[in-house]
Amino acid sequence: MARFNELSDYKFTIINRLLDCEELCKAICYNDTDFLMKSSVSDPADKLVYNHIFPYRFIPEVNESKKTFITLSLRKFQLINNSFKKGLIYLNIFTHRDLFKTDYGCTRIDFILNKVDEMFNQKRGIGIGQLEFVDMDEIVVNEKYQGSYICYKPVDFN
To answer: Strands of 145-156's sheet, edge to edge?
Structure first.
C-alpha cells in the first residue's frame, strides 16, 4: 500500500466511527432543537458524508442553507518505521448561528463535542489505536458559522 493511502484510511475510519453514533448523526442532520426525538437517519453515510461530514477542511458559503458540519484534518503526521504513527487529528465542528439552541441543556456544538469525546478520548478499538485529547478551542468560520475544534493525538497505534 502506498504510504499516503494510510492517511486516507485513518480519515474514513474516523468518519465511520462518527456515523456509528446515532445521536451524533441526528444532531448533525436535523436542525430542530429536539433532534434526538427524530427518527434515525436512514443511510447516514449517503446522507451525511460530503453533505455534513467532510474528510477535509470545508467552509460553507455564507448564503448556504443552515446546516451543521464536521470537517476532518490530519496535521503534522510523520513517518515512524515507514508508517504514519505520529500526528494530530483535528475535528472542526461548526453550525449556523441559528442552530446553536437545543432542548438538551447545552448548545448543539457542545452536544456534538461531548459525543465525539465519548467516542475517541482514551478509547481503543477505533481502528487507529488509542487517541489522547490534546486541546479544544472556538472557531469562527465566517459571519454565519461558528463552533469549536477538538484535537487528538494517536498514542498507541494498532
So the answer is: 53-54, 68-80, 83-96, 145-156, 130-140
Helix (H) / strand (E) containing 102: none
Return the C-alpha torsion angle 1, 15, 142, 136, nearest 10: -100
Cell of residue 146, nine digits:
461558528
The SS3 assignment for 29 reads helix
Burial (CB count <10 Å: 0-12, 13-18, 19+), residue 100: middle
Q: Residues 104-143: pLDDT tens digits?
A: 999 999 999 999 999 887 665 555 677 889 999 999 999 9
Alpha carbon of residue 75 to chain centroid: 15
